[in-house]
Design brief:
The protein is α+β, with helices and mostly antiparallel strands and about 675 residues long. Among the domains are: about 5-105, Rossmann fold; about 130-200, ATP-grasp fold, A domain (Dna Ligase, domain 1, 2-Layer Sandwich); about 460-585, 2-Layer Sandwich (Glycoprotein, Type 4 Pilin); about 600-665, OB fold (Dihydrolipoamide Acetyltransferase, E2P), CATH 2.40.50. It contains 17 helices and 40 strands. The strands form nine sheets. The protein has a nine-stranded antiparallel β-sheet. Strands 25-26-27-28-29-30-31-32 form an eight-stranded antiparallel barrel, surrounded by four helices.
Length: about 675
Amino acid sequence: MFKKILIANRGEIACRVIKTARAMGIKTVAIYSDADRRALHVQMADEAVHIGPAPANQSYIVIDKVIAAVKETGADAVHPGYGFLSENKLFAEALAEIGVAFIGPPAGAIESMGDKITSKKIAQEAGVSTVPGYMGLIADADEAVKISNEVGYPVMIKASAGGGGKGMRIAWNDQEAREGFQSSKNEAANSFGDDRIFIEKFVTQPRHIEIQVLADSHGNAIYLNERECSIQRRNQKVIEEAPSPFLDEETRAAMGAQSVALAQAVGYTSAGTVEFIVDGERNFYFLEMNTRLQVEHPVTELITGVDLVEQMIRVAYGEALTLAQSDVKRDGWAIESRLYAEDPYRGFLPAIGRLSRYRPPAEVSQDAVIVRNDTGVYEGGEISMYYDPMIAKLCTWAPTRDAAVEAMRVALDSFEVEGIGHNLPFLAAVMDHPKFVSGDITTAFIEEEYPDGFHGVELDEAALRQIAAATCAMYRVAEIRRTRVSGRMDNHERTVGQEWVVQAGEYHYPVSISADPKGADVTFGDGETLRVESDWRPGDSLARLTINGSELILKVDKITSGFRIRSRGADLKLRIRTPRQAELAQLMPEKLAPDTSRLLLCPMPGLIVSVNVSEGDKVHEGQALCTVEAMKMENILRAEKTAVVTKINAAKGDSLAVDDVIMEFE
């Protein structure tokens, strides 16, 4: 077996590979850029080598620098993870030249399948159903518009060397095709060093379902069931699950057989994924083959019990698969939620900064539930603008889909992240969405169910009452602590009242609280009583309570006269006041938000790629004003209404923070 593996990647996937290598008794080498000097994968590896500046095109994807690190450390194998050099045949060839194993497929298979245009042609020749489109290279935006009209809108504009949603746009008209072509081309060049673009028909109401394949160099190939990856935003997967709630056994077997046949047709070895679009009638169309490990591979591991990284290492070493197709099991259900550094309340725009708090739920492995968290960060670490914004992949497994979803709800409620914007509230909201709960989802789920963006969750009154009762009981505990510290309780005389008014948004609940050593009874004005039990203490940021015997988990922050509470995607400020305080609070004026309607504010930390207007220009609603790049994605900022540009405060190449003023209007 290999003695030392270098991981040509960073973040959570580097940490993931290190864990399996360590379990196999193999030493590991991390590589890191300036921005990752203190990263978790660097701390976990046995050795670490610095390879350059923060931008990936000056460090992680520079083949010569990675090869130099391999030679320096004497690694006898390299695992590329995903992204970066994982689907670069030149990298695999460079390793072969120095006698170092590439833990992935042969260079020929990477060339054939890693290139989206070539892979579609091969799939067509192999008899695999493919989506209609133009497989040739596209020279410029004018040609992109012409081809889009020939294929028929809507179309998908995709980077030939792309992956992970980078270099991908949907166009519904000529203007979007023109703009999408240029943005896809720019993103592809920056992320993959390859700006080739192709266009295909965008299938409406589709599901994105992929088949995991595994093949060795001895002619053996199997598929390990499927993953449902339809919950996507901007073509980036957000929530995945295995198996799919939509497939039947006949369709699953047909997709699996085609995937294995395609892998064998190109001499594929290692783990790989064949991706399909599946319509409402379970007709499936080949999209592409990813010649690498997928981000969402943990859900397959959870339902099959197969460590895919271990299998990749063994195959690269020359071992034959010990699993036959008949050995592949499908046990229970697994869900994966991708935790991203992004602000769901600002259009999911990327967020950067320091993780002032990072407390994932405890990982468990039991007969009834498994909780797994693949991550590459730690409390106090920093989220950089240079790389993908994913913080962690939270996974749950249970015997049934309903139980796996419930386990995910509890895990998300227990996940504490502070210091940056993140999508935990949105993930929690999806877990409770009726369409997701029923499995009635397509790749348009987010677009259709959140057309105006995500603005938080409005809890029903029953849930609000539970939280009101919980916070009232917590506030009583905090007040007792405060009065004791201040010396206002003499001879243990109770000075904390029993009558309160809890304000939760527009609701005002008069309550009476009666406590005993095991908990408290909170009685509302209409006579309803809720029993609250908890071991919460002032200062705890997470409260685990039972309300009338049902579990409730709350993220807790102290504010004046109450708490900021986050639960199930809702973000609430609850004020607990005496009846007289509540009466006076009604007379307080509300603070008005500042008027920013005449300003274009930078919605995220990022780099100005281009400014499309000049001072004095009259702009119209929907017109592109400038492009901001953050975390390898380009974002076009558009005019919200007709106006005249009076001042431009930023230029191409400027780095801006959130809410920096880019331009002003009259």
